[in-house]
Design brief:
524 residues, alpha/beta, Hexokinase, domain 1, Nucleotidyltransferase, domain 5, 2 domains, 6-stranded mixed sheet, 5-stranded mixed sheet, binds alpha-D-glucopyranose, kinase, Hexokinase
């Protein structure tokens, strides 16, 4: 770099601070600004301003991701977790599952997996951990898309639609499964509920665009499913209901006893963790039979992790804007910065700014991106997949031209801007997920919480499920890398010898885990 270039670069940074006052926030100067207040000043150095914004995006998203900052965020989160373990009706929700599977549970069960966009019904056979090659077998499965029409169905019709899909699956079986004895069924539910027994729970707000909670809040979910099935002469009994994160944990724990957490990162995010009951306030358990507590040293806990992180995880001005425009501002801070539903929207907001500056797409916002949430996270993944550095072999050029309906192909400079923004957004997302998971891992080993912390246990396996963690290029490995470094660098290493955290990819974990939950329900 020549001396002239050096001074130019300093001037550009100073200009960026004037244009984007929130840059100063991270220098500890002025903490409050919103995108709406930003005055757009075009610099004379037009060629440089897209690059300046690119550098700024990179800097702001990567700023929190140093080991020192990540460890300090993790400690702060652990304090939030501890507080919510004492009192909260919304998160750190203990289930009724207090034993982990031994891997010896056997049987055939009907399993349901109600996700944000897919409903699966399966007949699952558990054969035992040592059965090779398949300890768990999906004997039959049907998968139905939950589109906008289904999402908006009122409860009676939604549960009848579910019962219809269960009926379809059962009718495909040659040997009729319906007899006088009710068929045992397990349900993985990707929404919060207030669990009242292993097989029941009160409906809560569902989010993710669903309507069927509106006339059922407080009603028992198990009864709603059973009634809908009875309406179609299906003799089933709901034996277990688990959150999708708990189902993921159970399915992997069936195979590997080192598993003590289940992480979901797809449209939404959540973690189920196996935690000591003694670390939770009395009110967390509602009214339970005293006999339950006798056997319950630890319990699978639905953390509803997405709700944590406010005022701990630094936000950029694009996060502030997304939050401000959200139906439920501040409701799920971690989710808004890490999941499939939001990564695309963050990129879209950055694009809006670059277009308004007149620096991208000749200052015209592409038609398909005008609506909020119109940029699919898949596009970020495609940009990151493409490692080419020139126009001739760049897949991104055609991907972007098509997805954004551009009349002329994007320039290499524009592609490079978009790619850097995608990389920055996903880099921070993997760091924040690592921070939130590390804080839970440390909580499990915290002597205050868990006096009998498994000091000898050097390996923690975290079962992973969901499109972002399983499919987004490089995401899981980067997240695991962060976790490894954090666990080694953190002060806990002084107490525990070289801990190892493994992110274990799973396959059909929610549906399999629901079957494991039924098998466990047989255990008194
Ligand atoms: C949302 C739900 C949570 C679920 C998660 C992953 O955050 O609140 O219950 O586990 O999405 O599907």
């Amino acid at each position: 770099m020549t001396l002239l270039d050096f001074f130019r670069s300093i001037l550009r940074h100073l200009a960026a601070m004037l244009i984007f006052p929130s840059t100063l926030k991270h220098l500890g100067v002025s903490p409050k600004t919103s995108n709406a207040e930003v005055t757009v000043v075009k610099t004379t150095d037009d060629m440089a301003s897209l690059d300046t914004l690119k550098e700024e995006v990179m800097r702001l998203f990567r700023y929190p991701c140093t080991m020192r900052r990540m460890l300090s965020m993790s400690s702060a989160l652990r304090i939030q977790y501890k507080a919510k373990l004492q009192e909260s009706e919304a998160c750190m929700l203990p289930s009724y599952c207090h034993t982990m599977p031994t891997g010896q549970e056997k049987g055939t069960y009907i399993s349901l997996d109600v996700g944000g966009s897919t409903f699966r019904v399966a007949l699952v056979e558990l054969l035992g951990r040592d059965t090779r090659p398949h300890p768990m077998v999906i004997k039959r499965m049907t998968s139905s898309k939950i589109d906008e029409r289904i999402r908006k169905l009122p409860s009676a019709q939604f549960f009848d639609w579910m019962a219809g899909r269960i009926q379809d699956m059962l009718e495909q079986e040659e040997t009729p499964l319906i007899s006088n004895e009710p068929l045992p069924l397990g349900l993985a539910w990707s929404f919060p509920i207030e669990q009242t027994s292993r097989r029941g729970g009160r409906m809560q707000g569902m989010g993710k665009g669903f309507s069927c909670h509106q006339d059922t809040i407080g009603m028992d979910l198990g009864t709603l499913v059973e009634k809908a099935c009875a309406g179609r002469q299906l003799n089933i009994r709901v034996e277990a209901i688990v959150n999708d994160s708990s189902a993921t944990l159970l399915s992997q724990a069936y195979l590997d006893p080192a598993t003590s957490m289940g992480l979901i990162l797809g449209t939404g995010t959540n973690v189920a963790a196996y935690l000591p009951t003694s670390c939770m306030g009395k009110s967390k358990f509602g009214t339970r039979d005293p006999a339950w507590f006798e056997g319950a040293e630890k319990v699978i806990t639905n953390t509803e992790l997405s709700m944590f992180g406010k005022s701990i995880l630094p936000e950029t001005r694009w996060d502030e804007l997304l939050n401000l425009q959200h139906q439920l501002p501040d409701f799920q801070p971690l989710e808004y910065m890490t999941t499939g539903r939001y990564l695309g929207e963050l990129l879209r907001l950055i694009i809006v700014e670059a277009v308004e500056m007149g620096e991208l797409f000749h200052g015209v916002m592409p038609e398909p991106l005008l609506e909020r949430y119109s940029l699919d996270t898949e596009i970020l993944a495609r940009l990151e997949e493409d490692k080419s550095r020139n126009m001739t072999d760049s897949v991104s050029v055609s991907v972007i031209q098509q997805a954004f309906a551009l009349k002329v192909p994007p320039t290499l400079r524009e592609i490079s801007f978009l790619r850097t923004a995608a990389e920055s957004i996903s880099y921070r997302a993997s760091a924040y997920i690592a921070v939130a998971v590390h804080a839970l891992w440390a909580l499990q080993r915290d002597a205050d919480i868990n006096p009998a912390a498994s000091r000898g246990k050097s390996k923690t396996s975290i079962a992973c499920n969901g499109s972002v963690i399983l499919k987004y290029p490089g995401f899981k490995d980067r997240c695991e890398g962060f976790l490894q470094r954090m666990s080694k660098t953190g002060s806990l290493t002084r107490v525990f010898a070289s801990p190892k955290i493994v992110l274990q990819a799973t396959d059909e974990a929610a549906i399999l885990g629901a079957a494991v939950a039924v098998a466990l329900a047989d255990v008194p």
